[in-house]
Amino acid sequence: MEAAAIVKKIKTLEIQGAKNVALAGLKAINLYASGIKSNNRKGFMRELKSKSLLVAAARPTEPALRNAISFVLLRLSECKSAADAKKTLASEVRSFSKNIENMIKKIGEIGARRIPDNAVVFTHCHSNTVMEILRRAKYDGKKFEVVCTETRPLNQGLTTAKQLAKMRIPVTLIVDSAARAFIKKCDMVLIGADAITSTGDVVNKIGSSTIALIAEEQRKPLYVAAATHKIDPQTAKGFLEPIEERPGKEIVKTMKGVKVRNPAFDVVHARRISGIITELGIVPAQQVYRLVEKLI
Amino acid sequence: MEAAAIVKKIKTLEIQGAKNVALAGLKAINLYASGIKSNNRKGFMRELKSKSLLVAAARPTEPALRNAISFVLLRLSECKSAADAKKTLASEVRSFSKNIENMIKKIGEIGARRIPDNAVVFTHCHSNTVMEILRRAKYDGKKFEVVCTETRPLNQGLTTAKQLAKMRIPVTLIVDSAARAFIKKCDMVLIGADAITSTGDVVNKIGSSTIALIAEEQRKPLYVAAATHKIDPQTAKGFLEPIEERPGKEIVKTMKGVKVRNPAFDVVHARRISGIITELGIVPAQQVYRLVEKLI
Amino acid sequence: MEAAAIVKKIKTLEIQGAKNVALAGLKAINLYASGIKSNNRKGFMRELKSKSLLVAAARPTEPALRNAISFVLLRLSECKSAADAKKTLASEVRSFSKNIENMIKKIGEIGARRIPDNAVVFTHCHSNTVMEILRRAKYDGKKFEVVCTETRPLNQGLTTAKQLAKMRIPVTLIVDSAARAFIKKCDMVLIGADAITSTGDVVNKIGSSTIALIAEEQRKPLYVAAATHKIDPQTAKGFLEPIEERPGKEIVKTMKGVKVRNPAFDVVHARRISGIITELGIVPAQQVYRLVEKLI
Amino acid sequence: MEAAAIVKKIKTLEIQGAKNVALAGLKAINLYASGIKSNNRKGFMRELKSKSLLVAAARPTEPALRNAISFVLLRLSECKSAADAKKTLASEVRSFSKNIENMIKKIGEIGARRIPDNAVVFTHCHSNTVMEILRRAKYDGKKFEVVCTETRPLNQGLTTAKQLAKMRIPVTLIVDSAARAFIKKCDMVLIGADAITSTGDVVNKIGSSTIALIAEEQRKPLYVAAATHKIDPQTAKGFLEPIEERPGKEIVKTMKGVKVRNPAFDVVHARRISGIITELGIVPAQQVYRLVEKLI
Amino acid sequence: MEAAAIVKKIKTLEIQGAKNVALAGLKAINLYASGIKSNNRKGFMRELKSKSLLVAAARPTEPALRNAISFVLLRLSECKSAADAKKTLASEVRSFSKNIENMIKKIGEIGARRIPDNAVVFTHCHSNTVMEILRRAKYDGKKFEVVCTETRPLNQGLTTAKQLAKMRIPVTLIVDSAARAFIKKCDMVLIGADAITSTGDVVNKIGSSTIALIAEEQRKPLYVAAATHKIDPQTAKGFLEPIEERPGKEIVKTMKGVKVRNPAFDVVHARRISGIITELGIVPAQQVYRLVEKLI
Amino acid sequence: MEAAAIVKKIKTLEIQGAKNVALAGLKAINLYASGIKSNNRKGFMRELKSKSLLVAAARPTEPALRNAISFVLLRLSECKSAADAKKTLASEVRSFSKNIENMIKKIGEIGARRIPDNAVVFTHCHSNTVMEILRRAKYDGKKFEVVCTETRPLNQGLTTAKQLAKMRIPVTLIVDSAARAFIKKCDMVLIGADAITSTGDVVNKIGSSTIALIAEEQRKPLYVAAATHKIDPQTAKGFLEPIEERPGKEIVKTMKGVKVRNPAFDVVHARRISGIITELGIVPAQQVYRLVEKLI
Fold first, then answer.
1. Which residues, including other chains, have CB under 8 Å from residue D91's CB and lie 6 or more apart?
2. Chains C and D touch (3+ CB pairs under 8 A)
3. How does residue F296 score in pLDDT terms, banded at 50, 70 and 90?
4. What's this model's pTM, rounded to 2 decimal places?
5. What is the pLDDT of residues E206-250, one digit of tens each?
6. Three-state DSSP class for B39?
7. Which are the contacts of C65, defined by CB distance < 8 A and separation ≥ 6?
8. What is the ipTM of this complex?
9. Which residues of F touch E196 (CB under 8 A)?
10. Closest Cα of chain F to A114: distance in Å?
11. Under 8 Å between Cβ of D78 and D45
12. Taking the CB of the first residue and of the last residue of chain C, which one, N or C, has fewer CB atoms within 10 A?
């Protein structure tokens, strides 16, 4: 597949998920790089950066894509020649997928230690990073149960419930509206993140900000599990993280005279987060941004 | 239909809704009364009270039923003879339905005045009393719009949306999880009540307590619309208002290894309520109980 | 002066202040009454009530006027004849002014007891009822000092400061913006009221709601001093207490391209009030309304 | 014993406990009454009232004493003659002790219903009313356990623990400082009251206000168990409930250069109380005062 | 002008404004430097540092001055000779003014992105940095309006209003006391800073802490716009940022017996700040200090 | 003494106190080092690290021990030979004790500046670091007084009171339950720390979390005084700081049927801390962790 074809797939949402989009973006850049004629280091880098901007623009709401590109460009800056840069780029792309998996595995290890024995863990929607923590905690011999919401309108909570049941982790499914009744009796709340801003606010599936409000009211620790590539450097420059609004028909078929609104995400305030579990350790939300400042 | 048959229908939930249950209960008592042989006032009343306890016990979680009975018995206490009592009882039963309608109409009038022009009103589930306020506000020429949740698992919010659309009141439907995003931009929250306790706490459809928490966080006034027959005197005696738990299959078909929990109601704290709109006026939640203390 | 002339003066704000307006209203009704021809009790009362509505409508935002009228009509309802009613009315009007003074004197006595020795009392704007409490506390031998805001835009705080200085009560004047810095070091906040709603919310000079917010944040008791004729029964019927917006030129002379907004009052939430000091005792804000329910 | 001797014992704290002091006060008044010569009703009542004031003044910080006297005088006001009043008084004094016991028994019944099965109940200090609720809940077959503080400096919590152990109610004793760690895991907090003010604030053993703050933070219901004779009408008139300061040596023997302070009570704010369990039912703190307004 | 004369002008407040004071301080140091005889690098630096301390002491409450000096000395530390250091110093002083302008321009760019289209922005007092953000947002084509307080006693808000009107940005002027009524309806609050402490607290014009409290209550984002030279490293060493108290006559002419207090600043707590907009990006208040730690 | 003997003493709690344990651990490592035969740098370091892990494991709940070891190993990493490393190690151990003293002295200097003249400082338990701040403030000529709790069950507050009295600092002793009554009237709260987590939460003597809650409620600044070696890097890896539970007999002799619970510590949330006073300056709790990230 050509670089342009990949970029198109990113644009049209054919490729989805933070990790997949970032990986595809790197592949596209690698393909572009192999086509660059200039043997001169400076010229090569100039052209590569212009292509990179093009790729990054294919999904402006995906920080993981931008971060992957920034990280690789940073690495290339130490290369002495165009040839060296090409080689390094190719190797980075090859190791990228494995690196992400390692990050998530590391988060699993760290996060699992925060689940006390006999705990009730409350979660919302479906997050691979959260699932890895729960899987690891089970593997480490922890006894605990999970309460998860159905997560309307797309019911990703059912996927969470099914996978947990398969892992033989006791799981209870509830409607989104019952969150407060069950958070009251849980020991901790654990959610994923779609993006993290420069002030430590977390963008996640609609309903997350309400769950954070309830966790604060009920004095339950709320942990966010997220690799550092979810941090969005654009927010430091003032840009607001865009909130996607999805079609109303996901909720209900057309009803005459009734408008249907369907925002997909909301924002959890930094001060309501007990800690962000990253591959670099558990840090306060106000701190996580500094972990990647070299990319900015 | 015989008194016993009615009582059975109340027990088996064949008869539903605060007003309908209370009316049926009174009818049953009336039927029982017509069968009482004693011409002696004291003897008649003794027998009637024992039948009344029996009827009230048919739906122990319905304060409107108990209150209707208490109210009628109070009226009878002023009667001079068994015959007089029988006549009064029959007449009370006849006028009961109309009385309730008058109460709700009165609440509509009062509540409509609290809806500011150009307001956005947020509501949850489906309440006839709330609908009457909105209908009346429209009738009074107020311009406003309504945001309502779908109210999982039974989606009563769709009924609300449909009826509002029919009245040509602009209405927006959202998933329950999006409540916080929309309460942020609304001007007031308006919900009904299934029961009100002696300390002013309001039992209502699951999700109401979360909506009240959000309204408090976002400093939006939260009004509860409820006739005083929703107040439960039993709670003054220490009894906790029971919270019904409904079958999990209302949420999702059986999933192997997944437990499904489905509580139908939760409790809005008195201090989160800006006012209760009753047929006797708008009063603080801490006050509403005194409105009916003569029934206790 | 004729009744109609008085009503006009009330309408045009020539007569001001809760007490003065109420007194003028009663005088107008008394004048109207003396002109009623009907000797028949029922006929007399019918006509009197219609005149009373007319007088009450002259200042729809003044609860003291409505309350005075309701109170007097209630008294007349016990009269046996038109002549008796006329006499009673005349006597009520005569004693009205003295009654109000007694109410305020009583509040002074009660409120003065709440001022601890060596206290710093924070106040805002100018309230005769508050002044009476402070005067009485001084008279009772209490040692205390007062901090008062200038209360822009009309600087009523300067009147408060001057009068306190005259009474030899130590007083400090500050800008409105400095309220938080000084409430931090005060022992209690004491303000008056323009109107009290059925849910115990208090309408008072702009800035009061901020002072109440600060008092809550700084955990300082906030007392409202107000006779029960400030309670507005209309609010129980759903009407919102109207907030007067005054001319911008009170703040600043015209500035090209700059809009000036000047709302005169704001609303102190019931839950931020430690107690309302009335002539009937100190009661929680949620309770004060029941003190006058017979008028409603 | 003569009336004056009783009054002296009240003054010197020889007689202690709300109930005992109230009973002794009534006995003194009864003795005084039997010495009144006047056969004339008015004269008798005048003299009796003056004696009553004298008795009430013997313990100005005990609302139960003042309330008992007010209540009895209210009863006498319906008597037609001096002789009738004397007889009624004697009978009231005889039945007083039993009345209090009935009140506490009633509170036990009502309060026991609020203890959920398998609950953990947190309490502080030692209150007979609280003990009656716990005793009754056990008697009613409820399974629950209690956590109680040692309650420095006089360690009344040890009495609570011992008595509960005797009733075979599982009980855990902790230091006062550990309250927050254990309230986190309890289901409700239940304390007694030394006095209740007109605004619903509760005066109780030092530490109670902190426990109420923690209960609010941890969203645990806090109930106060108190018969209505603990309500202090003086507070409605502006008087502050006095807080007793006890000798420092209760805490520690003299330490050179170290001042020891030992206040015995603090104040639980009305808004932190979920309900006050009285013999007349469970009501919001803001409401309880109206229960006795006829005494004021 | 001689170095000593500049230092005097700084001391006597003849030179004002963070930027102007810092620039004048650097100029004084440059003048001192040109007079240093020592050709030896070490000797030169020793003497320069002693002069720098002298200049910094001229305005101990101005962090921008201290920071400018620290920054320049840091740069000189890399110089190899006295001559090189002199040249570098001269060049730094020349570029300083431009650097500050660039910082503010950068903040304008970043901050403008945080102003949503159709927003209502609330501001207080007059801040050049805030004005640059608003100017830039207008320039970027954003449609928004501004509400500003008059900011007693010196009415700097009128300057803000006039300048905005000149830029054709719709602006509404209100009294300081009306802040809460208008923050309720705004979308964000944006203020400047006089100094920022090591714990992220912001010192700004009196009234700012109240505005921050209201923004928190009303859940409106509060941004502080400030270049990093406003951060005061002295606060890390324990020193408290001093709060200037200005003459009472700024508020009111002498009133007999009335004390007038006029503190010029108050402190906005770090946790009430949504983000600090610096030239290095938008960061949480708790983070901003680390941006300059190399200066400390 | 041999290395193994020291390790044993650490294990059996014969050696106590953060500083003493860390020092003993370093001594043990030094003794182990002198026994390592390998002259090869790599081999020496490998062996030394293995011994270090062994020593660190002797007290898994003491972050100061782990941090001291990490710090020294970091220093050795720059050594060129085994001999050089041995020498450096010996010198580090010699200077360690002095380093800690310098850290605490530095904290004293910084912290003393935060104590305003005429302040009332509230403290809990006994902390050497807090004592050094108070000693230094007195030495600097500050006038202030201290309120301290007795700190049940071991009454360390009496030691605090005695030492302060000896320094002629006015001190008041109270029971733990009276904390809220006295924090209300204090100007700041100052406590020590047993450990600090990666998210800025502070583990300290039981009761500290309640004091922090009260300080937040009463808006009093709460400072924690702690050298950076109290920060526990293990918490960044997910481990929870263990909370020691001590024997019940410290509270009360066995009481039949009564369980006694005695947790020794609780956790102060980062957001309730105004600043942590470290030897590197006063920083927000969310920041302190980054101060030692090089050790992690």
1. none
2. yes
3. low
4. 0.94
5. 999 999 999 999 999 999 999 998 998 889 999 998 888 999 999
6. coil
7. C10, C18, C21, C22, C25, C55, C56, C58, C59
8. 0.91
9. none
10. 6
11. no
12. N
